[in-house]
UniProtKB/TrEMBL annotation:
Pathway: Carbohydrate metabolism; tricarboxylic acid cycle; succinate from succinyl-CoA (ligase route): step 1/1. Gene3D superfamilies: NAD(P)-binding Rossmann-like Domain (3.40.50.720), Succinyl-CoA synthetase domains (3.40.50.261). The active site is at H251 (tele-phosphohistidine intermediate). It comes from Pseudonocardia endophytica. Succinyl-CoA synthetase functions in the citric acid cycle (TCA), coupling the hydrolysis of succinyl-CoA to the synthesis of either ATP or GTP and thus represents the only step of substrate-level phosphorylation in the TCA. The alpha subunit of the enzyme binds the substrates coenzyme A and phosphate, while succinate binding and nucleotide specificity is provided by the beta subunit. The keyword Electron transport does not apply. This is Succinate--CoA ligase [ADP-forming] subunit alpha. Heterotetramer of two alpha and two beta subunits. It catalyses: succinate + ATP + CoA = succinyl-CoA + ADP + phosphate; GTP + succinate + CoA = succinyl-CoA + GDP + phosphate. InterPro entries: Cit_synth/succinyl-CoA_lig_AS (IPR017440), Citrt_syn/SCS-alpha_CS (IPR033847), CoA-bd (IPR003781), CoA_lig_alpha (IPR005810), NAD(P)-bd_dom_sf (IPR036291), SUCC_ACL_C (IPR005811), Succinyl-CoA_synth-like (IPR016102). Substrate binds at Y165. Pfam families: CoA_binding, Ligase_CoA. Keywords: Ligase, Nucleotide-binding, Tricarboxylic acid cycle. The lineage of its organism: Bacteria, Bacillati, Actinomycetota, Actinomycetes, Pseudonocardiales.
Length: 295
């Protein structure tokens, strides 16, 4: 099985006619994703060529859903238009909105997150500033290269896009039920805890890899959740062990204040919850291989 995305998912792309939308929709189609349409209000009623396929462009998410039965939207929309695009997806009550866009102002992300919550959380948001979600061999919604790893029994949730790719590559011989890049911005939709809860409930996910990074307290909260609710083995990695104290690194959410949010503090919290934490991504992959080999 997989979580949030499967072979039956019908995907639309908001911003399909732009350069990034076209490029990644082509790759998604090539990897077997069922792309049923695109959305661009200015080009409604036209078709847009994606790879060797002509995709119908609709004026709104609501129209695309009505005509195609779409239940997933992937957003390649410039930052200044992203808030309105996510709100449109939420108002249409599409099941999953994967927001790839980087550089969305935090107040915009906070606004559409709150809007989704006020509407009853009928739309799951992944991102923003993320690589998306892939259930190998079934569907791929985002920019994760589909040829890194095939289907298998590991669930992966990561704040970092590049570390998502590295971990998938290092564990490619075992494979993945689903891999999710949740993004590293201060305000995101789907959290580590959301993914951990879904992987725990998925009968075909046998073990979980969780990748975090310095800043905030998401990993500490995830550790508390694992301790109370997760029975499956978890291996973890926290990026940023060598980050200078008090310095903002990389992702917008990677802000350290005193000892709170440091890699060491997160590592200790996770280990206290029974998570095996590697000092490097490769060490974490080796720990997961040991876990799966012993099952």
């Amino acid at each position: 099985m997989s979580i949030f995305l499967n072979e039956n998912s019908k995907v639309i792309v908001q911003g399909i006619t732009g350069g990034e939308g076209t490029k990644h929709a082509t790759k998604m189609l090539a990897s077997g994703t069922n792309i049923v349409g695109g959305v661009n209000a200015r080009k409604a009623g036209t078709t847009h060529t994606v790879g060797d396929t002509d995709v119908t462009v609709y004026g709104t998410v609501e129209e695309a859903m009505k005509e195609t039965g779409a239940d997933v939207s992937v957003l390649f929309v410039p930052p200044k238009f992203a808030k309105d695009a996510v709100i449109e997806a939420v108002d249409a009550q599409i099941g999953l909105a994967v927001v790839i866009t980087e550089g969305i102002p935090v107040h915009d992300s906070a606004y559409f997150w709150a809007h989704a919550s006020a509407k009853g959380n009928k739309t799951r948001i992944i991102g923003p500033n993320c690589p998306g979600i892939i259930s190998p061999g079934k569907s791929n919604a985002g920019i994760i290269p589909a040829n890194i790893a095939g289907p298998g029994k590991i669930g992966l949730v990561s704040k970092s896009g590049t570390l998502t790719y590295q971990m998938m590559y290092e564990l490619r011989e075992i494979g993945f039920s689903t891999a999710i890049g949740i993004g590293g911005d201060p305000v995101i939709g789907t959290t580590h805890i959301d993914a951990l809860e879904a992987f725990e409930a998925d009968p075909e996910t046998e073990a979980i890899v969780m990748i975090g990074e310095i800043g905030g307290d998401a990993e500490e909260r995830a550790a508390d959740f694992i301790k109370a609710n997760v029975t499956k083995p978890v291996a973890g990695y926290v990026a940023g062990f060598t980050a200078p104290e008090g310095k903002t690194m990389g992702h917008a959410g990677a802000i350290v204040s005193g000892s709170a949010g440091t890699a060491q503090a997160k590592k200790e919290a996770l280990e206290a919850a029974g998570v095996k934490v590697g000092k490097t991504p490769s060490e974490t992959a080796a720990l997961m291989k040991e876990i799966v080999g012993s099952k």
